[in-house]
């Protein structure tokens, strides 16, 4: 492994600052101009190495070079990037049978006036009345066997992909949506193609319909060499493998229930009432493990193991390779998730949260004592998943992994303890450096444990441990700051309204930055806004938001995110071998992402690698 500087302060930042991109989303006005630029993109892509997917930054560099050499304004960068991505993946999409493809259509193609369709949980329920092109495209795709979804940015897309129902995506959308899709879909290495809408007006818009039809009908017969196309390395099969570990049947097979009780899902709504009392704790714990989340921690462990043991799961035979991952490795990956789920149960109690994964939290359903006990059970289960594999893993490997898990568990508890002590203290003053220390303790250890365990399962981890710790610290801190920013947007998954951290009295770097940036009178006003609860929550949150903006807290927080992102990228770039470096860069790109059009993080990002609280 290439040596990495021991001091983060010596790491040179990368020139990858995030900025606004609205001015880069022009669509070529004439069909002739669009055809000409599309042909240039196809020619450029034909000469690219497709063994690994381009990053968004790399794709932008290629797009800018094309536009510069063609004497075209940079305003068309976004459109050119979408066409580049489409040409990059064309042969691989063509090699996927239509029955294994998902076709995404935007609701804005419908006629706004008089459309009889209504929205359900996954998108627009098209009535196929014939008044717009949605029905025509949908009928064509469904006749070929596609799965069709009329929606934009729906979390259901991730479930469909990771669930193994489709292997490629084709779609139509405006450039605003497609820009985000480059982050969300291409990042995971999912073959995809798209046709941009001709405007971003969000109602009664239009598209090059023959391009859409051509895309839908793309097949091995229409693309030369589709059967022999290079397969771009992808984490899709590892993402699926991590999620499948927690399917009820697989979970019961890999880690059989000691009490032999039934699944709660088979109890016909009885809950735990009909269970033997001793089996109830186990039943609740198993149900919670399989309930939800992105299972990003087991993914990181499996991916790190694969990166140092052949890198087979990201290649053309990845679907078969993941099936050969030893069960002892799978159980270790699962242990990371049990610790995470235990921390969520306890965090929800400590933070008085009412919802998790869109449902009532465990303590809201079963009471605080039972929830605490279930969390404790999950911790014990996590250690047992590793300790019982000592014979397969080797005593030294099992001992090192258990030690790493114990250290991560203790550091996380220290971070959570510091947060609770600050929350319950009367003095609410906080320095940014102290908030960042809490983040480094509370969030980073889970990244570090997941990575370290995967590396240790494959090889001696001593050489990698220092870099993994520093990488994880920067990644975790940046992620937690993004979480702070997201809290001010609210979301539909765990939090219901913006400003929950302020109302919950949790220490954040935004709070510390605001205190640092305000004068004495404004600082006192901010402290009073939280201490005095006479005003309605919405009024208090609005006042705190205004003071945050006055202090420049949001902008300063974004700069901190970029600083830690650059440090993590630089550490990743110095790692050898290449498969591990590629994984670390993937984690940076998938964890630390912002909506560049607004400069603030999106409320719900898919697919993504979340951590604490996700």
Key phrases:
4-stranded parallel beta sheet, 5% strand, Farnesyl Diphosphate Synthase, disordered C terminus, 2 domains, disordered N terminus, mainly alpha
* Major sheet attributes: 4 strands, parallel
Q: For this structure, what is the CATH class of the largest domain?
A: Mainly Alpha
- Shape from CA axes? globular
**What is the fold named in CATH at topology level of the largest domain?**
Farnesyl Diphosphate Synthase
Cα end-to-end separation: 32 Å
Q: Helix segment count?
A: 26
* Strand line-up in the sheet with most strands: 4-1-5-6
What Rg do the Cα atoms give?
Answer: 25 Å
CATH architecture of the largest domain: Orthogonal Bundle
CATH superfamily of the largest domain: Farnesyl Diphosphate Synthase
Q: Overall pLDDT, averaged?
A: 83
Helix content: 40-55%
Low-confidence stretches: 1-18, 119-127, 491-496, 595-614
* Beta-strand content bin: under 5%
By DSSP, the count of extended strands is 8
């Amino acid at each position: 492994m290439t040596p990495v500087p021991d001091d983060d302060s010596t790491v040179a930042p990368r020139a990858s600052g995030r900025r606004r991109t609205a001015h880069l989303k022009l669509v070529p006005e004439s069909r002739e101009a669009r055809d000409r630029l599309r042909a240039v993109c196809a020619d450029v892509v034909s000469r690219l190495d497709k063994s690994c997917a381009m990053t968004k930054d790399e794709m932008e560099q290629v797009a800018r070079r094309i536009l510069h050499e063609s004497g075209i304004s940079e305003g068309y960068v976004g459109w050119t990037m979408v066409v580049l991505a489409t040409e990059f993946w064309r042969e691989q999409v063509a090699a996927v049978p239509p029955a294994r493809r998902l076709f995404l259509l935007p609701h804005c193609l419908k006629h706004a006036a008089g459309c009889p369709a209504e929205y359900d949980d996954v998108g627009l329920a098209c009535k196929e009345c014939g008044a717009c092109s949605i029905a025509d495209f949908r009928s064509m795709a469904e006749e070929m066997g596609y799965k069709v979804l009329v929606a934009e940015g729906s979390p259901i897309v991730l479930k469909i992909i990771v669930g193994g129902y489709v292997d490629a995506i084709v779609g139509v959308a405006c450039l605003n949506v497609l820009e985000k899709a480059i982050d969300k879909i291409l990042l995971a290495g999912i073959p995809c193609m798209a046709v941009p809408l001709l405007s971003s007006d969000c109602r009664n818009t239009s598209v090059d319909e023959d391009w859409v039809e051509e895309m839908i009908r793309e097949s091995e017969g229409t693309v030369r060499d589709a059967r022999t196309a290079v397969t771009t390395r992808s984490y899709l099969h590892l993402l699926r493998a991590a999620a499948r570990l927690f399917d009820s049947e697989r979970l019961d097979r890999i880690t059989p229930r000691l009490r032999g009780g039934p699944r709660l899902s088979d109890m016909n709504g009885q809950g735990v009432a009909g269970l033997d009392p001793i089996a109830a704790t186990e039943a609740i714990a198993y149900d919670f493990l399989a309930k939800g989340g992105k299972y990003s921690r087991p993914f990181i462990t499996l991916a790190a193991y694969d990166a140092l043991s052949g890198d087979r799961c990201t290649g053309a035979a990845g679907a078969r390779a993941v099936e050969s991952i030893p069960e002892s490795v799978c159980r270790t990956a699962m242990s990371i998730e049990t610790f995470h789920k235990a921390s969520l149960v306890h965090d929800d109690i400590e933070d008085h949260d009412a919802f998790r994964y869109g449902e009532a939290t465990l303590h809201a359903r079963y009471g605080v004592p039972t929830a605490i006990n279930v969390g404790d059970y999950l911790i014990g289960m996590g250690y047992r998943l590793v300790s019982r594999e000592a014979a397969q893993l080797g005593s030294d490997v099992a001992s090192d992994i258990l030690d790493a898990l114990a250290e991560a568990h203790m550091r996380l508890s220290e971070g959570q303890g510091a947060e609770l002590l600050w929350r319950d203290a009367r003095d609410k003053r906080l320095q940014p450096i102290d908030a960042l220390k809490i983040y480094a303790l509370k969030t980073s250890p889970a990244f570090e444990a997941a990575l370290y365990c995967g590396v240790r399962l494959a090889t001696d981890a001593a050489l990698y441990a220092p870099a993994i710790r520093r990488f994880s610290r920067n990644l975790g801190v940046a992620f937690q700051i993004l979480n702070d920013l997201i809290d001010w947007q609210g979301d539909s998954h765990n939090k219901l309204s913006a400003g929950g951290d302020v109302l919950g009295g949790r220490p954040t770097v935004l709070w510390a930055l605001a205190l640092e940036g305000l004068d004495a009178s404004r600082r006192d006003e901010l402290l009073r806004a939280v201490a005095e609860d006479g005003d309605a929550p919405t009024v208090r949150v609005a006042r705190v938001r205004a003071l945050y903006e006055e202090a420049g807290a949001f902008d300063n927080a974004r700069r901190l995110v970029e600083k830690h992102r650059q440090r993590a990228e630089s550490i990743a770039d110095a790692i050898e071998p290449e498969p591990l470096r590629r994984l670390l860069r993937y984690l940076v790109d998938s964890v630390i992402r912002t909506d560049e059009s607004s400069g603030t993080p999106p409320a719900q990002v898919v697919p993504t690698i979340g951590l604490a609280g996700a």
